[in-house]
Amino acid sequence: MVAEQSEVVVGYLLAHALPTLFAGGPILEIVELVVDPEKRGEGVGRALVEHALTEAWSNGCVEVVAPTRRAAAFYEHLGFEPTATYFKRKRP
């Protein structure tokens, strides 16, 4: 999803749906959310997330997740709850 103002990209959200057993149905995982630093605080990120939520619910997803620590306050403000620690292993 892309947010534009005056034909200029000011933000984007990358997400994908995953079938799961643990959640009781498919989930939408927000992989990346980026907003132009000069446009932060203007509702661009919120609009992108709200659009992703609408799409997720209309496509049968049972939850939307955002694996991040850096943007915790942003997602909590939008009604998300912290649920787990995210582990990763980089390629050697």
Structural description of this entry:
With 92 residues, the protein is an alpha+beta fold. The protein has a single domain (2-77), classed as Gcn5-related N-acetyltransferase (GNAT) (Aminopeptidase). It has 2 helices and 4 strands, in the order βββαβα. It has helices spanning 44-58, 72-77, and strands spanning 2-5, 8-18, 27-35, 63-65. The chain has a 4-stranded mixed beta sheet with strand order 1-2-3-4, with helices on one face. Strand 3, helix 1 and strand 4 (63-65) form a beta-alpha-beta unit. The chain starts with a strand and ends in a 15-residue tail after the last helix.
Keywords:
single chain, 92 residues, alpha+beta, Aminopeptidase, 4-stranded mixed sheet, 2 helices, globular
Offer a concise description of the structure.
The chain is of the alpha+beta class and 92 residues long.
Number of DSSP strands? 4
Q: How many structural domains?
A: 1
The number of helical elements comes to 2
Which regions have little confidence, pLDDT < 50, spanning 5+ residues? Answer: none
Topology:
Layout: E1 2-5, E2 8-18, E3 27-35, H1 44-58, E4 63-65, H2 72-77
Parallel strand pairs: 3-4
Antiparallel strand pairs: 1-2, 2-3
